[in-house]
Amino acid sequence: MALNITFRQLRVFESAARHLSYTMAASELHLSQPAVSMQIKQLEETLGLPLFEQIGKKMHLTAAGNEIRQYSHSISQLVDEMETVTSTLKGGKGGRLAISVATTASHFATRLLASFAQLHPDVTISLDITNRESLCQQLQNNEPDLVIMGQAKENADVIADSFMQNPLVMIATPGHTLASQSAIPIKQFEDERFVVREAGSGTRAAIERFFIAAGVSFHTGMEMTSNEAIKQAVEAGLGLGIVSRHTIGLELRTGNLISLDVQGFPIMRDWYVVHRKGKRLSPVAKKFREFVLSEAEKLA
Ligand code: PGA
Fold first, then answer.
1. pTM of the complete model beyond 0.85
2. Residue 103: CB within 6 Å of ligand 1?
3. Fold of 7-75
4. pLDDT (tens digit, 9 = 90+) per residue, 93-131?
5. Pairing between strand 158-172 and 258-259?
6. Ligand 1 centre and the CA of 48: distance in Å?
7. What is the chain's Cα-based Rg?
8. pLDDT tens-digit series, residues 166-208
């Protein structure tokens, strides 16, 4: 049985499934919203199965939608790969680069991409910024070309190379009572309520591992998905925070925040450039990977 599915329908569906929104798919693909819903309706009719369902205000994929998403994603990727390969064969320099980075890495990754884009002005770059948990999911789905994140999960099927250290520091306002103390024992923070990142963040997981290893209980006061928000909360006196030093260069220079001298700190982590094992990196993805490994430390 030959299904009359068009590539355009799959592209539209893939985008709508990724955003769980017809409106966002329409804006991504520069189509009108009715055009998006028409393409998806035709696809559903051809398949004879509904792909989305609306529960309350939220769109969800049906079981069939989830299955079809895997296929449409792989097909879209193959077509992208084909475009890149043909453009390289034709001697063109262009190509697409899909990079996903950890929220915390975005503080230097944008600079990295800007320098890379200057060297390769014909490359179309897309950047997704999200937390560690969702990066692991993206890698599993083979979505991005490359990911910049902390250490990948132990049994993850990935190639990961470290390129720079990522020290996590405890931050406070300059007037904090512990500001002038040195080698503060971690035990002293047993009753502290920290302003920290959400569960699912690599920074958060590293902090929890550190406290467990030190045998000190860890309490969260407020959880935030943005490092900027944590800095502002600490500056506003809502508590102590723990963040990557890569996120607080400016505040340390202006003296708006200080990093406390706590025993065992900074918590040392590493940044990695990661891709799925077996992935055929496009020429431009290979170039970007080399660029990160050789230039990131200088640029950050
Ligand atoms: P995060 O990323 O922004 O999720 O904390 C850092 C990491 O992966 O270590």
1. no
2. yes
3. Arc Repressor Mutant, subunit A (1.10.10)
4. 677 899 999 999 998 999 999 999 999 988 889 999 999
5. antiparallel
6. 42
7. 23
8. 999 999 999 999 999 999 999 999 989 899 999 999 999 999 9
